[in-house]
Amino acid sequence: MHAIKCHSLSKKYGRKRALDSITFSSSEPKIIGIIGRNGAGKSTLLQLIAGYIRPTSGEVTVFAQNPYNSLFVSANSMYASDEMRFSPKFTLQETLAKMAAFYANWQAERALKLMTYFQLEQESYYHHLSVGMKSIFRMIVVLCARCPLTILDEPTTGMDVAVRKDFYRLLLKEYIDDPRTILLSSHLLSEIEELVEDIVLIHEGKKVLHLPMEELREYAIGVSGPTAQIQSVVAEHDWLMKKEITPGVTYGVVKQSDISLEMFQAKGLVAEKVAVDDLCIYLTDGDRGGINRVFS
Ligand SMILES: Nc1ncnc2c1ncn2[C@@H]1O[C@H](COP(=O)(O)OP(=O)(O)OP(=O)(O)O)[C@@H](O)[C@H]1O
Question: In what residue span(s) does the ABC transporter domain sit (predicted)?
Answer without folding.
Answer: 4-229
